[in-house]
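Morning - WT7 inputs below, output right after.
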Amino acid sequence: MAADKIYPPSPEFVAQAHVSGMDAYQELFEEAKADPEAFWGRMAQERIDWFKPWDKVLDASNAPFYKWFTGAKTNMAYNCIDRHVKTWRKNKAAIIWEGEPGDQQILTYQELSRRVQRFANILLKLGYKTGDRAIIYMPMVPELPIAMLACARLGITHSVVFGGFSSEALKMRIQDLEAGIVITADGGYRRGRTVRLKDAVDEALVDCPSVTNVIVYRRTGEKVEMQAGRDHDWEDLITDMPETCPAVELDAEHPLYVLYTSGTTGKPKGIVHTTGGYQVQLASSMKWVFDLKDEDTYWCAADVGWVTGHSYIVYGPLLAGTTSVMYEGAPDYPEPDRFWRICAKYSVNVFYTSPTAIRAFIKFGEHFPNRHDLSSLRLLGSVGEPINPAAWEWYHKVIGHERCPIVDTWWQTETGSIMISALPGATPLKPGSATFPLPGVLADVVDMDGNSVPKGSEGYLIVRGPWPSMFRTLQGDPDRFVKTYWSQLDGCYFVGDAARRDEDGYIWVLGRVDDVMNVSGHRMSTAELESSLVRHESVAEAAVIGAPDELTGQAVIAFVTLKSTYEPSDELAATLRDWVGHEIGKFARPKQIRFSEGLPKTRSGKIMRRLLREIVTQDKVTGDVTTLEDLSVLNRLSTTSGED
Ligand code: WT7
């Protein structure tokens, strides 16, 4: 990789940046490394308001159940809204929202404040209070962050379920959390059509006795069932609500939200995030990575249903007092220039998206961005998966006009905020590398024994020790928290990604080392997909792998062995894909179903997915097959398939 092209920040960018030059970055990094508690204490004082100061910055007495800012009282909604309303920012746009059909709303910090407080009063009136749990299942409308912030204001732990998840997936989350309320909408818009959400809620609630109230925001106006006594219209409830509702003084360690993500088993993990430390590190990363200035318009084009949206559409930008753009719909509706139209219309300065989106734009063609004036852009970001250098170069040239640095940000649902990224006014960029850890993050690439690998080598990505925005546990499963993440190497967080450290010390994240796939920047579990497939009456056995895909990074390929009474057919393949769509969500449907008479297994019965991967990528098996139980299986792996 000696020929890596390097892009140093321009002198103009460096001159105006919050962190100017590598020396300034090094200085911050060293300060944090030398005394993490003093460093994070300083960040906490500078960036966040507290009702009561902390006794201790870090309590590591019960590691890995670390606690941050113990004894302190604070409130996320207060820090996102109230403290800005007390300043000149009161009439600054907090959220610029555009619906897919083209409708728009601009909410100033004051307006957001009123709406959040009125909605919080509804929750109080219905009897919910600090410590209760709410499920939020909504399209990308302003009422989604409003609902989140109202929960945060009262200390009601929320769990946002991405609108693309099915009723089955929704049900599992409601049950796991024993949520008392579901906040939803009739539906939302996607590619000119409506996605009906309330129907899915109704289906899920058949088995969810904990839920006693459902609030329905009317987005599409389509007719939905309303169960008397349980279901309420958002508009009806809000009419008489007063505009003030004090923010509850919460413990720094009060759980703000639980977000479910796929792991290596069939059951998703509930990632638990708390309040104080999350606020501190999130606000810090906004400043360092996105270099935000008060006059910036910032747009993270993700969905609030994933962690990217929690941290970098809702909480991060509002903590920073930023103007955050939010768009409801598809990037190619009504035409593939929608994103660039939005960038030009609102003069977006900082734009953050995923490599999958960028690759889709490359396919659509340069003429779409070229239709629009993108000169307001000054900084670009990427997140969710490794960005291939070709996509990086295109993003840099066609969108950034070779003027905008690109921050390739590595992090996870578990980490809460960005962990490895360039600082745009400091780090010389290498396309495809997330570059260096942020101040306060002791990321490393190590071998199996935990020794740092030499420059030029690959290994496991880890983080040495705790960080403030880290998840605190897995909902209802602290043992799994310890076992999955903190048991591989003493005192270290095991990320689950492979990485390379190059000759210059740059970190290149290579992808997962476990049975987790990354499809379009979304985490997908082989086990979860497999257990969904075997629940179908026709399936005897299934093995799922992620195959390289030009557009989505990885694509789901399922090998399926049918019960003897079933015959492979294109129809059955389509049925199985739809089945997974119904069980998890449309976005999880396998790209390909391959029927096979048997699956390659070790003598102990473990499916050898590595061999399946070789069959898909190279059409043959080249690796070691000595542990294979029945060699003839390989020859019998048929390629009968139906493809999307
Ligand atoms: C996994 C986390 C963080 C929000 C979106 C995904 C992969 C994420 C990068 C990047 C290479 C990346 C990793 C990670 N990943 N960002 N910049 N370069 N890989 O959140 O669903 O929790 O997935 O996404 O494999 O472990 P997530």
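Note: The longest helix spans residues 109-125.

O.
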